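Record pair follows.
FIRST:
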Amino acid sequence: MNLEREPCDLYKHVLTRRHLLRRGSASIGSLALGSLLAPEAFAAGLAGNGGRQFAPKAKRIIFLFMNGAPSQQDLFDYKPQLSDHHGQELFKKFDAKSKTWSKEGFIEKTQRLTGMTSGQSSFPVARSNWKFKQHGEGGAWISEILPHTAGIADDLCFVKSMHTEAINHDPGVTFFQTGHQQPGRPSMGSWMSYGLGTDNANLPTFCVLISNGTGRPGSQPVYTKLWSSGFLSGVHQGVQLRGGKTPVLYLNSQPGESVAARKRMIERMESLNRIQFDAFGDPEIATRIAQYEMSFRMQMSVPEATDISNEPRTILDLYGPECQQPGKFAANCLLARRLAERGVRFVQLYHRGWDQHG
C-alpha cells in the first residue's frame, strides 16, 4: 500500500499527541491498579526487603500531636537568658526623625504580629515560670512540670532545630503535618504509607485517632487536610477511627444484609469501575477499587482490633481508667498500640483538649 497516495490510511499509522497521552496514562493506571490489588506480586521484581529497594529501619510510628500544647520553653527548651532579660522590651523603637533604631530592645519591629498581640503597646521579655534541671546521662534540660518525662530522658530525642515562618495555629499545624503552610500536600503519615507499604492487607497503613474535645469554646480544631494524601494516591490517605460503637462510618453491613450479599455488591461495583478504568486509565479509579476491597476486609479486622475486652487488667492499669472510655486520649493510646501490633505502619493521635492560652 502506498501511504503517500492514501492519506486516510496514513492517519492510522500516526500516533497523535492525544492518543499518546491517553495510552500513556492508561499504562500508568494499569501499574497503579496492579500494585494496589496485588502488592506482593508487584513487589516480587524488587530485590529482597519484602519487595522494597532499601531495608527500612523504622517499623511503625505512633505520632502524638498535642494541638495547642504548652510552649516548648516551659517544657524542654531551656533558655536561661530569658531570666536575665525578664521584663525588658523585646522590640527596639524607631525614631522617624533620625531614622534610627533605639539601643534598648533586642530586635527591630519589622516582622508580622499575630492578631492576638497586634494591639499591644508593650512586648516585654518573659521567662518561664518553671524550674529546669538536667536529666539522664545526656544532660537533657527538662522542666519540673514533666517529672515522668524526665525519668526517660535518655530514651528521647529532642529536636530543637525546627523553624517556620508561620505565626498562627492553622498554618503552623499544617506546616508541621505536611511540610507546607498551604493545604494540599501529602501528610507525614501518607508519605510513610507510600514509602514503607503495609504489613497487614486487612487494615489501613495510616490510621488517625482524635480525642474527644473538652467542649469548651476555643478548643483547637482538627481538619481532614492534616491527614490528606495530597498529590499521592488516595490509598495513602489516613483513615479516621472514631470513638464509640462505630469506629469507621458506613463500614458495617445494613440490617438484613448478609456478608455474601455485601461481597457480591462490591464485586459488581468493581466490574463497573474496571469498565471506567479501561476507558480512561485514571489511577484514582484503581484507588477506588482497592478501597472498596479494603472496606470489605475491614469489616472483620476493625472490630477485632478495637475490642479491648481481652486486654489483661495489668495493661489497662498502665493506661489509666479512661482507657475504657472510647474517644478519650488514654483509650486512643491503647488502640494505637493494638493497631501497631497488627501491622499498621503509622498511627496519628490528635489531642485537642488543652490550649495554654485558652
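SECOND:
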Amino acid sequence: MGVITLALIAAGWQSAEHAEPQLWVIVACAVTIALGTYMGGWRIIRTLGKGLTDVKPAQGFSAEASTASTILASSALGFALSTTQVASGSVIGSGLGRRGSTVRWRTAGRIAIGWLLTLPASGAVGALAALLVVWFGAVGIIVDAVLAVAIVLVLFLRSRRDEVHAGNAMSEVADSGLAVDVPSDPPPTRRQRREKAAAAAHTPTREEDR
C-alpha cells in the first residue's frame, strides 16, 4: 500500500498533504493478497511444513511464537523486514532445535536464491512496465494490465497441473499429533523407581518380625 501511495503522489494523482492510502488501494491490496493465498497458499504451507523440516506441533508453536515476537519487535523499532523470511528462519530454527530432526538445506538454498532474485527481477519488470507507459501513454497502461492478467492466468493454470490442496498439503498432519501423545500407562520415572526401591528396603520382612 505504501509503494502504491508513493507512486500516486509522485505522479500527482494524490496530494502529499493526505499521504494516507486511499480506500481503493487498501481494497486492491487486500484482494490481491487473498488471491495470492488462494492460488499458492497450500503450496507454501507444504514447503514450510514439510519441505524445510518436518514440523510437529511443538515446533510449529515455537516457530509461530518466534515469528510473531520478531515482527512485533521490528515494528516497534521501525525496522523493515520480510515476514516470509522471518517465518522461514523460524521454521529452520525449530527444526535444528528438535532432536532427531533434519533440515533440508537444498530446499532452504532454493528459497534463498528466490529471495536474491526477487529484487532484481521485480525491478526489471517494473522498469519494463514504466517504459511501456512512457512510450505509449494510456495504451501502455492497458498493455501492462493485459500482460499482468495473462501472466497470472498462466501461472494459475500451471499450478493446477500439480495441484496442492488441503488433502495433500500436509498428509501427515494427523500423525504429527503422535509427537505429543502421552501413553495411558507410562513407565515409571527414575524418581518413582528410587522411591519404590527405598520403600521396599524399609519394609520389614517376616524373618525380621520373628
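COMMENT: Confidence is low (pLDDT under 50) at residues 176-182.
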